[in-house]
Amino acid sequence: MNPTLIVIACGLVSLLYGAWAIRSVIAAPAGTPRMQEIAGAIQEGASAYLARQYFTIAVVGVLIFALVFWLLGALVAVGFAIGAILSGTAGYIGMLVSVRANVRTAQAASQSLQGGLDIAFKSGAVTGMLVAGLALLGVAVYFFVLTSILGHDPTSRTVVDALVALGFGASLISIFARLGGGIFTKGADVGGDLVGKVEAGIPEDDPRNPATIADNVGDNVGDCAGMAADLFETYAVTVVATMVLAAIYFAGSDHLSATMLYPLAIGGACVLTSIVGTFFVKLGGGTNIMGALYKGFIVTAVLSLIILLPVTYLVFGSFSTTLTAGATAAAEAVTTAAGTDGAAAVADAVAQTGTAAGITFTPFDLYLCGVAGLVITGLIVWITEYYTGVGFRPVRSISQASVTGHGTNVIQGLAVSLEATALPALVIIAGIIFTYSFAGLYGIAIAVTTMLALAGMVVALDAFGPVTDNAGGIAEMADLPEDVRSTTDALDAVGNTTKAVTKGYAIGSAGLGALVLFAAYTEDLKYFIAHSDQYPFFQGVTSETLNFSLANPYVVVGLFFGGLLPFLFGGVAMTAVGRAAGSVVEEVRRQFREKPGIMEGKDRPDYGRAVDMLTKAAIREMILPSLLPVLSPIVVFFLINAIAGKGEAFAATGAMLLGVIVTGLFVAISMTAGGGAWDNAKKSFEDGFVDRDGVKHLKGSEAHKASVTGDTVGDPYKDTAGPAVNPMIKITNIVALLLLAVLAHQGV
Amino acid sequence: MNPTLIVIACGLVSLLYGAWAIRSVIAAPAGTPRMQEIAGAIQEGASAYLARQYFTIAVVGVLIFALVFWLLGALVAVGFAIGAILSGTAGYIGMLVSVRANVRTAQAASQSLQGGLDIAFKSGAVTGMLVAGLALLGVAVYFFVLTSILGHDPTSRTVVDALVALGFGASLISIFARLGGGIFTKGADVGGDLVGKVEAGIPEDDPRNPATIADNVGDNVGDCAGMAADLFETYAVTVVATMVLAAIYFAGSDHLSATMLYPLAIGGACVLTSIVGTFFVKLGGGTNIMGALYKGFIVTAVLSLIILLPVTYLVFGSFSTTLTAGATAAAEAVTTAAGTDGAAAVADAVAQTGTAAGITFTPFDLYLCGVAGLVITGLIVWITEYYTGVGFRPVRSISQASVTGHGTNVIQGLAVSLEATALPALVIIAGIIFTYSFAGLYGIAIAVTTMLALAGMVVALDAFGPVTDNAGGIAEMADLPEDVRSTTDALDAVGNTTKAVTKGYAIGSAGLGALVLFAAYTEDLKYFIAHSDQYPFFQGVTSETLNFSLANPYVVVGLFFGGLLPFLFGGVAMTAVGRAAGSVVEEVRRQFREKPGIMEGKDRPDYGRAVDMLTKAAIREMILPSLLPVLSPIVVFFLINAIAGKGEAFAATGAMLLGVIVTGLFVAISMTAGGGAWDNAKKSFEDGFVDRDGVKHLKGSEAHKASVTGDTVGDPYKDTAGPAVNPMIKITNIVALLLLAVLAHQGV
Fold this sequence. Notes:
The structure is a homodimer of 748-residue chains.
Chain A (H helix, E strand, L loop, with lengths): L2 H25 L5 H40 L1 H36 L3 H37 L7 H44 L11 H38 L6 H23 L10 H28 L6 E3 L1 H14 L2 H11 L5 E3 L1 H26 L4 H10 L3 H14 L2 H32 L1 H23 L4 H49 L22 H42 L12 H38 L1 H39 L4 E2 L5 E2 L4 H45 L2
Antiparallel strand pairs in A: 1-2, 3-4
């Protein structure tokens, strides 16, 4: 039997799990009529959001589909469609379940903590397993269809381009969900607070505020649909890039099919361990919710560690076979060169095949790379918890700084956000060195693949957050008893930490995944250059004109240009939140003015209109920033091409990709960690924060107010700009890959 | 006559100008006894600061001197001493003049605006001309001594190492002045405000606050001594790196002496044009202070543009001679290789000599590169003014966001700070492409040299700021009439803009200067490798093991490692300000407790103790962050050497240098531009800010309070962390250069 079919079966198991979990969530009691009324409004809002968002995506998607079809052909365009549709489906179903689980969680929380935890986590797990399952299925099925049914060679450009386009389809959804969604959620949050708390003097989650429902919808938009699309993209793109690297490195080798299968096999195995892990999310006797969630996570990680050993053996048929990456390509290039123009050409060929040539390793080395991926995940989770958790120095230092005012709170928060980048970066650096020394670039790719294979579990932890957040809001609005609210609060507090932790994971994996994409870019380029007889555009590009060395100023130019993108993008995204919030303020003011009965509780606000208007504003605001990563590789390439020729243009574009990763990683980590720390510093005042001088500061104190300022600043940091940097990094990379494909295809 | 002597004469002219300007400042009337009393306290505080700071520097300096002597010999150690002593002297004299000019400015301002402007600017010009003059003299005289008197070959390692060590000496002062000084100034500012305004309820600049004098001293510490040391370092380091590049590229060529002289000649010529420019800082009939300052700046720039034409002709004897960079070295390496091991070695040699080989250009091309440097300077000034000036969109958007609260003010400020990085980066990118296409890496170096040749004028503009700031404080404390205060306020407002603009210039030039240093690193490395018979440590490093390509994971590791440094450094520096401010709070509380008469105005606070205590705190706080740039290159080199061998270690270290520049440039620009924008957004409320809805917000309004929060956040951003990133970038680079020298010297 074709082993890809086993992988496909694993993917189908995750869909079955999803179907089962959806049924069991929906079967739970949905609470009082008042609760259902509120939940109904949130569901209505979510549908309004999804309808407009997906309509826009559909329009843009059809245009891109047509463009890809025209430039690269039908099979590639279909790949694009598969990626977009599956990622969209995961987010869509996840959202629909999430806005139905919230009220059921509130209801269950009125019975027991375990009950609330069960429903909320199961709802998150639906999204998680759909993400991992559909991403895996998308890649595996299409690869199977292309190679085993349509009979294309696995290393052919058609297959490579179609898979890359699949990643690009996922990217389309991801930028909409992360950037548009991020602007939506924080626009609703900030705008709703401004006009509700500040102007009208009504509390958060007050049903009289027309923006309240938008705020609740926004929680799901960000941490359910947003995270789903983000990790779907990273997952798909990383698996694809790993397969592309395998196709290039092992072309003509006996191990080609095994090395191309291996990332899919890892994905299949870890989907199963993720499903098993979900059943270990149990409180046991105590009330340690975080402990229960980590139990599930650790079970998944340990089981993966174990199961990958036999998987590796089965895929390669041995632990000690010698795999040689790039040997064929290198030998071929050098031989060709030697046959033609003598020493200079040999030098060219050697330089072009570069470090990939002739690295050897065993399947067991690859297994160790996978283990490294799991260790990196664990360390990043641990570091993020340190920087954003209430009990540790960073958050305490922000709480302490709040005592002396708004300004010092923000200063300390910024200090923490900057500092928080160092350890994750060191972990990533260590991971690169370790895995590279074991199995070269392919080893790095396997480590990232393994890291991402846990995406099902990780997304479950993240998508758990908005359900509990909503449940708290519903309990508040439906005037449920105080103890229900405190149960949902306990769940929600944990949700804040899991949201921060999973964002750290998402960014870390995106950073490493982008490196794999960058490797795919350079290897692709080498391939086209080595076969420039078939790809006339690449004729004349030699190692003298294509020079990725840092000593080449065009490389430096590329690094700077790439480096500026996350900063500019972050700045524009933060401004967009401000403007979207402004439009919420206008809308709410208008509703208050036109329906004076709202404030008296007599008239029902028009929640749907607020949601729809904000969705429109968010989509309008995302146009400019989302064009940045799409256009930058194209502009840089053609600009430098005009100035200095093709070779330097390829070098500058490649360097740009790395520039985006280098600054993007730091910008994104600093924003998400800083935002999480500010958030929890604010929370530390809810139970009363005891400062250095022994004074206790409670909710409502001046120190608490200062901490609220920090939290407000952290919101667009951690929920809009920071997470949106992820898809931005990857889109820049994948557009560059597609650009190569288009140039190769045109034969200009 | 040796043309270096003409350059030395130009340097001496700037010292003469300095002496004349000092005399004329000191000769001005020093105001009432009360004013002199206050100024006396500031002078006392400045002396206390300088005494402790320079004592610490002396101790550290002697240790490093001994180390350099031991590792690299006497001449190199003397170079280090020259750099440190001259930079220290410029800052020391500048500070002493500045704290005497402040009271005289206040006195002159009571007569006329032009009078106040005259003294304040002249005081700034003293620092400026000392910086440019002493930096030029240091390099030129020592070069003359080494080559013409001691008879060393200009391209010999002794001369190169001695000049690099001179840059390192300047770096020592620079990190103390920028980082220690930055922590001092903002510790005094934030701490003084916290304990004075917030706790004791007394206004800023109230003589009862023991931290008031420290605050006034701090202004000079940051913008006079700090900027002086920073630009002294950038100036010296850039001129040295340019000369080193010339020595490598033109070794054995007829044009060696001309290309090594050219940067010095540019420096000499522009010192003269800067001096001429100072005489054009006149109000004319109006009251446009900024216009008057820009008049001086523009005269300097235009005169430089003109005078560089004949200077270029005189240095090279023609505009159209063909200069070929690196031809000899390349040819030599290839010939040697061909003579030994055949094709592979030729490939090695070709790869190693790389892009530098055989680039040809004319002296007129170099002149155009110089013009590009001036244009870059102009554009950066213009962009910085746009992002930090009161009349433009960015600052207005922050003012507008203040209307909705502290949080939105900070969000918008951060958005502006992120966005503000894009245009300067694009200007730098364009500058690199333009100058490289005209004259290769040497062309880039000449552009930066020309940019920095204006340092005298630029430092004058910056050091003008603290004088007017202090003058305002003195006017306040001495109860001078309202109209004097409004004159000093007008001068001070301009000072804020010039401070922001000159910081943009300092960072832009530091970023480009660091590129030149990076080029020096790679060229040095190539040199050692090509002559590994003399430098046994470099034996066995070939193009296969030394691979600067982005496809090499150790290069990526280096980029990430370098990239994290500015973030970590910035975070630690921000935290340090918080802690230093805390120690000010303790000290002031103690004085209030022990001398209750202070608050009643009966007892004199112990200003000196507050200054001394804060100086100690600042020095303690700077230890950890200042070790980062010093140790990082060493740690990275030996770590990667242990893991992957020498070649990869050199590659990773080199990549680290570029990583620091790439993220450092963005971090520094975002911090200084953001801080300036926050500052001016606060100022916009002083005349009343009219928001989008037509409501006017005055000083004391809620919106104004929100803008004060942003300003507080911006303070350590723009005055501590941001500017300190400059020396950090350069120290990392220069330590790496010294590391190469040490490795070459040890012959291990």
